Amino acid sequence: MSEKIELNARQIPKYWYNIQADLPTPLAPPLGPDGTPITPEMLAPVFPMNIIEQEVSTQRWIPIPEPILDILAKWRPSPLKRATSFEKALDCPVKIYYKDEGVSPAGSHKPNTAIPQAYYNKIFGIKRLTTETGAGQWGSSLAMACAMFDLECKVYMVRISFDQKPFRKLMMAVWGAECIASPSPFTQAGREILEQDPNCPGSLGIAISEAVEEAVQREDTRYSLGSVLNHVMMHQTIIGLEAKTQMEVLGEYPDVVIGCVGGGSNFAGIAFPYVLDQIHGKKVDIIPAEPRACPTMTRGPFAYDYGDTAGLTPLLPMHSLGHRFVPLPIHAGGLRYHGVAPLISRLILDQLLTPQSFYQTDCYRAAMLWARTEGFIPAPETSHAIAAVVAEARKAKEEGKEKTILFSWSGHGLMDLAGYDNFMQGKLSDVELSDEELSLGLKCLEGYPNPPR
Ligand SMILES: Cc1ncc(COP(=O)(O)O)c(C=O)c1O
């Protein structure tokens, strides 16, 4: 029998969980260009102070303001479902539960932070937001949030996704945002890249540089980031907090928790409330999944690096492939990022998470099986989590163990069908970063300070 647990609107969590209160090892501070820790005031041209306060807060539970809850209630709590047909097709001794974040208006988890970010900017008196987007999920989420709070919105979209996904751009236009391909000729950062390579496919790092550059030039404008930073991870914990309540209703506790990782926000959302249990001695395997083409967590060193290509952001302590690295043009545009959230990097170092990487074609194979059994078509990013679920299910069979797996179904793929088309036509290959490309990307890190491990 299909199992689906729906909570009512009153059961939306009223607090975000801030894992900074419970880290076994505190985060190293972000550094300015001179190598000294940056102060909140130094971030003020980029973010409003109410968001900067959240970024550095170590308060464990942070109340979610009522106007944010009112909007989240349009689609939250999101359903938790059991994938019984997929389980049957895998024929492994596992129960598979997934948190369906594809039900949001933009089609993914991204509005969970877009709404709070637009709200905090609005009450701070900001009129315009700039941002980057990879797959287009984040850009459309912020476009929607800005429409709801009457803010202007400008989105720099990674060129390869801009070309592959014209309908994402139209979604943003419907919500009133301007979306342009990055690298663009409109910023210094974009022009420099285009001079070196007029056909550059772009990357999240480049798009972030363009959006930050524009934001700091105007007093009425701030920048909004869809992942990586502490406050973004925290806004997403609403996913895992709801999931915990839903699993409790079923009398279940997961043996394994899985999420795909670009900058890390959807993974943090499902996983951090379970990391809290793990810190307090509970046994649970927590797996962040990434592409082999962009293996930040599995092959990138832990280093101080910039969050963007041009080096406009502070230096962040994180696993990184180097801020100048342009990831291979795989279809999961939202996972093409050179770095990963400092909070996730820290938890990896403290051995609370066990990252794994997957080939693009294995991810599409898993996604096709999902679509043909469960019906819903996952985003290419989400397919990395599904590939990890398949790997864990097979492992359970080999070990002869029964397991309960929980993962975040971070978004639907209805705007990403070009990737499926290429897969079905046999046009996709298993791209993997070579050792030479890896060391070339890491060259730009030479000379930066080493964060404490
Ligand atoms: C559907 C979906 N899942 C996951 C991601 C990865 O981003 P993050 O690691 O911030 O969750 C993206 C990014 O665009 C996405 O669109």
Describe the structure.
This protein has a 7-stranded mixed sheet with strand order 1-4-5-15-10-11-14, with helices on both faces. Helix 6 runs parallel beside helix 8 and helix 9 runs antiparallel to helix 10. It starts with a strand and ends in an 11-residue tail after the last helix. The protein is an alpha/beta fold and 453 residues long. It is globular. The protein contains 19 helices and 15 strands. Helix 6 links the parallel strand 6 and strand 7. The structure holds pyridoxal-5'-phosphate. The site of pyridoxal-5'-phosphate has 21 residues, from helix 6, helix 13 and helix 17.
Helix count equals 19
CATH architecture verdict of the largest domain: 3-Layer(aba) Sandwich
Stretches with pLDDT under 50, minimum 5 residues: none
Radius of gyration: 20 Å
**In one word, what is the shape?**
globular
Computed structural class? alpha/beta
Largest sheet: 7 strands, mixed
Number of strands: 15
Helix fraction, binned, reads: 40-55%
What is the name of the CATH class of the largest domain?
Alpha Beta
In CATH, the topology of the largest domain is named Rossmann fold
- Spatial sequence of strands, sheet with the most strands: 1-4-5-15-10-11-14
Secondary-structure topology with pairs:
Blueprint: E1 4-5, E2 15-17, H1 40-43, H2 49-56, E3 61-63, H3 66-72, E4 80-82, H4 84-90, E5 94-100, H5 111-123, E6 128-133, H6 137-148, E7 152-158, H7 159-164, H8 166-174, E8 178-182, H9 188-196, H10 204-216, E9 221-223, H11 230-236, H12 238-250, E10 256-260, H13 265-279, E11 285-291, H14 296-299, E12 302-306, E13 315-319, H15 342-349, E14 356-358, H16 360-373, H17 380-399, E15 403-409, H18 417-424, H19 435-442
Parallel strand pairs: 5-15, 6-7, 6-9, 7-8, 10-11, 10-15, 11-14
Antiparallel strand pairs: 1-4, 2-3, 4-5, 12-13
The protein binds pyridoxal-5'-phosphate.
The site of pyridoxal-5'-phosphate has 21 residues, from helix 6, helix 13 and helix 17.
